[in-house]
Design goal:
Layout (H helix, E strand, L loop, with lengths): L4 E3 L6 H10 L4 E8 L11 H6 L16 E5 L5 E10 L1 E3 L4 H6 L4 E4 L6 H19 L12 H5 L4 E2 L12 E3 L7 E10 L2 E6 L8 E5 L9 E4 L3 E7 L2 E7 L9 E6 L1 H12 L10 E9 L4 E8 L2 E10 L1 E2 L7 H8 L7 E11 L3 E2 L2 H40 L2 H8 L7 E6 L2 H9 L4 E4 L10 H13 L3 E5 L9 H8 L5 E3 L2 H9 L4 E3 L8 H9 L4 E3 L6 H8 L7 E7 L2 E5 L3 H5 L8 H7 L3 E4 L5 E6 L5 E4 L4 E2 L4 H6 L4 E6 L6 H16 L7 H7 L13
Parallel strand pairs: 1-2, 2-6, 5-7, 16-20, 22-23, 22-34, 23-24, 24-25, 25-26, 26-27, 27-28, 28-34
Antiparallel strand pairs: 2-5, 3-4, 3-30, 4-8, 9-10, 9-15, 10-14, 11-12, 11-15, 13-14, 16-17, 17-18, 19-21, 28-33, 29-32, 30-31, 31-32
Amino acid sequence: IGVGRVVLARENTIEDIHAIRAAVPDLALESFVHGALCISYSGQCYMSGMISERSANRGSCAQSCRKDYSLTDSVTGETLDTGFLISARDLAAHEHLEALAAAGIRTLKVEGRKKKPEYVATVTRSYRAFLDQVARGEHVQPLEHEGDLVQIFSRGFTGGMYGGRDGRDYVTRDQPDNRGVVLGVVTGWSRGGLLVEVSAPLAVGDGIALEPPHGASGTITGFAISGIRTLSATNGTVRQVIDARTPVPNGWRVVRTSHAALLERARQSFAAPAAPARGRKSRLDVRAFGSAGSPLKLLFTADGEQVEVHSSIELAPASKRAIDQTQLREQLGRLGETPFALGAIDDRALAIGLFLPVSEINGLRQGAVEQLLLRRDWMRAGAEAERTSLIAATVAADDSTRRATESLAPPARATLAADVCRLEDAYAAADAGATEIAYDPFLRHPMPPVARVRALAVSLATRGIDFRLRTPTIVRPAERKHLDKWLALGTPILSGHLGLVAELAAAGRDVVADYAVNCFNQHTADEIFALGASRITVSIELTTDEIAAVVAPRGGRGFDALVYGRPEGMTIEHCVLSAAFDREPTTCRDLCVRDHPLVQITDPAGYSFSVATDSACRNRLLHSRPIEGSEFLPRLWQSGVRAYRMLFNVPGDPVAEITARYREALDALGEGAPPPLARVRELVGSAFTRGHFARAV
């Protein structure tokens, strides 16, 4: 679609990157190598927005993954695991740099948002050193336990997915924030001093945490060291006395959470940055005019603009220092943080031997700079207005929206689509009034035989009900062959995978874009329609008014709205069930197929999220409560939306009842009658959310 460089998805292995490079050899590829690692993949995370009204998809994550959760069997209630089960360690891919270079990566991305400048400086310096090692043909060694990257900030490090799935070691499990470096233990207490034995000396200004040893109870305490004495240092063990107010038990761990010397070294690296090159500033040339008894006139020229300024007092014969090139350059060159740098000064039209107070010359400079800046703002505003006008004219001249609207005749009956993952739910929804069934064979394996799905599609077709195959939102290169056997059915498609939307639509398939494509605005909609989507499900993070704005250019035609069900809040490569039993991912299907097919994680507030394992052994974390948007149907209908989707992905969902009541409401709207909206809400009760229909994130 015209981009010049692509940041690769974080779940790619080195083998995946080689496959991508082979497919698009001329595309510049960028890879993320260090920083806070999101556990949610495929470019989407809805849990944060649903829970905290802060959308991770819009850059305002509430870090739902950093909470402590309990994993339980939904049927028996048995607790299977507890801790920070989906809190990913920080990525540190230094050991994979050689492989990344060999795979054709030429740009590395390090995460520094919302971090202190000392962190950015330390990480950048460290990776610069790593890359220099790679350039010299040297192998990058693993990080030392007390290395700079570990000390500056770390939740514990992982190589991510570059080397494949990492099981339990991929998440922190017991510490969702900066861990610091464990240096030693407390050995005693003496007259206001804490006796410690550490592997590296502590210093004044260092921050420390004192933690109970594993298996012991106690409250973690910490402080910045204000006073310390070294008693001895032998055989790699340093004995010190730290000034402290209260003792802690012997054997407690001493963790250095902040290293004063490291922070100071990082600050020095950016405390006095080099001045920007003069060439980056606009050249400012000056011409001077004047004679005795007349004002000093200066002409300032920069960026094609010229301003003229005059002194408020007249030039007079000098009794001491006369105005000359040296004085003019000294005073007019004081441009500081302005975007200008003094160029040539032409004083040939200025009589010699004249005097003007320095303050007057400085005032002329300041006035001229203000005028030039104002004119620069005018130029930018004019260019912006011209650009806006050009865009408006281009949009007005483009009749693609009108033609698209004309080509989409309003349906005789509103589309009511049911997205299901069980064959019995597909038949139940069809019997209750659904006009479209989207079946996801990849969720909650074992997968059904292809023949049974083909039989479902044929059965629905005989009843005039459309059938679609719902694809995963993540398809790694090695997984494509498993997807192809399902695509061979030749059915229409529902997909939140933008690449599949484009590929399959180009091949002539009827493709509806699922909510995971994150269609937030009209421009995104235009691009997705241009890729070939027949319909688009708008983002589930839009209010009804925002949905109305997105669909307005096409009169609502071609858009679906999700009105019921539990969206996939996160899709994660890490399997919480295999980690709970310390099993190797992808080789433990007995756990999710036989022993614990229905599990959930529960947060400290008591909200439970179903964990649905898919055929690739990924976990899809479903929202704790279903969206129920029946009350917003009239507003959506008014905006022109005539296709509505329901998600049924939890065994026990009242598929037939929900479908029948939504069908009843939509038929009433189609007939111009008041819809019986209360009937849906009565069925759901109070355990639902309005999603973002009523509030923005």
